[in-house]
Amino acid sequence: MLLGTVLVLLGLVLGGAGPASAHAALRSTDPGDGTVLQRAPRHVTLTFTESVGLRDDSFRVLDPEGHRVRTGEAGRADGGSDTARVALAGELGEGTYTVAWRVVSADSHPVSGAFTFSVGEPSATTASVDTGPTEDPLTATLHKIARYLSYLAAALLIGTAAFVALCRPPDPAPLRRPLLAGWWTLLGATVALLVLRAPYEAGAGPSAALDVTALGGTVATRPGALLLVRLALLVPAGLSLVRLTRGDRHLRRTPLATAVGAAPAVGLALTWAAAEHASAGIQVPVAMASSVLHLLATAVWLGGLVALLTTLPSSPDAATAARFSRTAFASVSVLAATGVYQSWRGLGSWPALTETTYGRLLLAKLAGVAALLAAAAVSRRWTTAWVAAGARAETAVPADVRERTPDPVGGPAGGPAGGPAGGPAGGPPARASEPSEPEPPTDVAAHRRGLRRSVLVEAVLAAVVLAITTVLTGTPPGRAAEEAARTAPAGGVLPASVTTVPFDIGASGRGTVQITLDPGRTGDNAVQAVVFGPDGSLAAVPELRLSFTLPDRAVGPITAELVDRGGYWSAHSLTLPLPGTWTMRTTVRVSETDQVSETRRIRIER
Fold this sequence. Notes:
The protein is an alpha+beta fold and 606 residues long.
């Protein structure tokens, strides 16, 4: 069952999840994107929607010839944790400069981008800008696998330990295997996350994980320090497991033992809460406490289901199942309270529930939880029926019959069989019959089988919910996305809509056009389009045309009057009168005789 849960989880996550999204959205830049300054700036400053971590290579400033400009060390603007600033050493000459940046958002995901500004007047530039993915695909995949395995292992480890301590199964020996599996899997996944951290943040391949210097830099960051804390907490967690599963049942059931075992679990949960959405945004202390309780309740429920499935075939006990039913009900209550709060905190508004990826994933999770609660209700009824049937079976057998000692085989001593002590003639003395394990009444066995089937369904649904939850933690919250769009200033600092359109250049390969609409809503929009060649450098093309059509309303085409600004194309005003899903047609003339057209669907909000 554990292997099946792992396969379900990995299949759902790796098969259905797209590239991991960064959670810190860029709010503004100074200088602004595309602006022309009369005098060279002394600093470059970025402001984000949440706190960010800085790297040694957080800024690369390139001059018009593509040479790197000497800069100071990356720091903060006025001490703000949501800012990144670098000083420009020396006077900049005239022309267009490219700023490439890369930071780590508060929930440990890297985010990067680039923008341009000009001093004096715009110029053509040969600066090479990386337009590839923020993450190396192989490193990102390995990081996702390790991350999801760590979630699953934590649920198995904490939930099974809680099952032993709270539900008190008569024989905890069968649970040693899932406990060890959870402990070792969490250990391996955490080590993998630690060594992959540096290449994951840098967007490098997995081979960079062997760089000892980079690993030393990782442990100095907050995500790296939290992973080290998680490794350290696995030591007392392992000692608690030995304490729980050894033969001294009295020790295993004391409140002190339960409290001692709970401390590492709370600490482990904190290492996740401090590295994800709860650590940034509004009401951080309350969000951290809610996140810890949510993770622990999830683990107690999901891990407890696996533990119950493990004990039902080997040592079925109705009292244990009844205690788990009560524990699961308490877990559901905690999940409901913390889930409502976290949903409100992450969404920010009702429209975000359907208009953002975060909101749609949240709806999917709610549907999964509803199905899970229905399965849990069925399990609860089977448990109640099993307990009641067991009680009826116990009272149906008279006390004198239950306490009667079995007679020796062959009758009483000296019986008519003629042998010594009533044994067969000429044979050895007969031995008293061993009391055999009584067969459970038919209704008791039926209820137990029904409970096992319903718990199996419940465990599979719980794995699905956990899969959606892990994808949800890798998706930008709706509140942050809305805030970034709402605070985007007019004038091109941060476009609310960015679309990358690839196109063929024939034998030379494929280029891309990055098209930005500011603010990406109904009404007047500023348009900027940058053409990149196959090598990622800025490319000059003879002509670039852009038009927009709204098929549902039979509006368009509306043409953007793009002007070549020397390095990029722009239109100061494009009016899109209605909200909806528009079709954007991009036509790139790559030579005097050849051109290529591509279409993309973009969403324009009111």
